[in-house]
Amino acid sequence: MSKPIAAMSSLVRPMIEPHCDDLDVTWFTSTEEAFEIAPHAEIGWFDLYDKDRMAKLLSSATKLKWLNSIYAGLEHFPLAQLKQQGTILTNGAGLNSSPIAEFVVMGMLAAAKRSDKLFQLQQEQEWPEQAPGTTELAESKALIIGYGGIGQQVAKKLSGFDMTVTAVRRTASDDPAGIGTEVIGTDDWRARIGEFDWVIVSAPATSETQKLLGKDEFAAMKPSAWLVNVARGSLVDQDALLEALNSKAIGGAVLDVTEPEPLPKGDPLWTADNCIITMHKSGVAQTRMFHRAADRFLENLKRYRNGDEMIAAADLDRGY
Fold first, then answer.
1. Which residues contact 127 (CB under 8 A, 6 or more apart)?
2. What does the pLDDT look like over 251-269, one tens digit per residue?
């Protein structure tokens, strides 16, 4: 009996190869090699940096029964094709939740204390009498829109700052993180957005979440409130955000993500006085992503062999 054909990057070979003797694996070292093996693979782990090329590659992978990816966002995947093929897609949801949550906390502290201004003062060798930022996280209120792995990690980390945290899920529920966060439904947060000092976006990018926050939402926020986006730039109406920043309708924004990416040179967001941009580095500011991904892949390989439910299996209809 022939072994199932698998295609995986050579980057994970040392962690995976000792555990897959029953697979016929091609360990590709280039995009060209990945394109060659993709049409023949039953199991594939393809993570090209160029998302458009990855979509093209996957369109040729018509024999895939299981596609694994380290990416959490699926907006560049041919989901309709994968569904028609009956392909199981396991994504990277949750793999980097903790380091991304650390980036959220870093951004909030930077905004509260205006560390960007402090660094500027250091470069100018100035010693001002007043601090550029005097906001305190303690006793403030945060709204987390999107309470999956990242949102739950954010809530856990913010719990140490004596904050009141409310989270948004598809439906209201008890707190799945078990830390007592108030969890409300998607129909409830807009009416309450004016309560919060921090609005943190960590929801998936789907057709339902396009420009989730725009002119009306910014107008309803506290004038002192900050937006923190670690999801996707498409969830925010960027023109409306820029207007809100310039008019001081909101306190400011911490953006790890923008639309497009990279943000073009000369875009006014770069120089907005109350905007901190971290160039989509929250998910790569870590040291053990591939180790976590490899461990999950091996567990899912056992489940695939046994026909069991797999970890982080994406809903191809919802797109996450």
1. 121
2. 999 999 999 999 999 999 9
313 occurs within a structural domain: no
Neighbours of 315 (CB within 10 A): 13
Q: Are strands 198-201 and 141-145 parallel, antiparallel or unpaired?
A: parallel
Domains contained in the chain, number? 2
Selection from 278, 276, 266, 284 nearest residue 245 by Cα: 276
d(CA 17, CA 23): 9
- Distance from C-alpha of 5 to C-alpha of 22, rounded to nearest angstrom: 10
Distance spanning both ends of the chain, measured CA to CA: 35
Indicate whether 186 and 257 sit together in one domain: yes
Using one digit for the tens of pLDDT, what is the confidence trace for 6-26? 999 999 999 999 999 999 999
33 in any annotated domain: yes
Taking Cα atoms as reference points, which of 217, 107, 94 lies closest to residue 158? 107
Task: Give CA–CA dist 49/58, Å, rounded.
Answer: 14
Domain match, 115 and 39 both: no
Question: HEC profile for 221-278?
Answer: CCCCCEEEECCCHHHECHHHHHHHHHCCCCCEEEECCCCCCCCCCCCHHHHCCCEEEC
Domain that holds residue 84: 5-95+288-306
Residues 48 and 134 in one domain: no
Q: Residue 207 corresponds to which tokens in the numbers above? A: 């057709």
| pTM score, whole prediction | 0.88
CA dist 144 and 142 (Å) reads 6
In 3D space, the residue among 43, 40, 37 whose CA is nearest the CA of residue 62 turns out to be: 40
Same domain, 142 and 264: yes
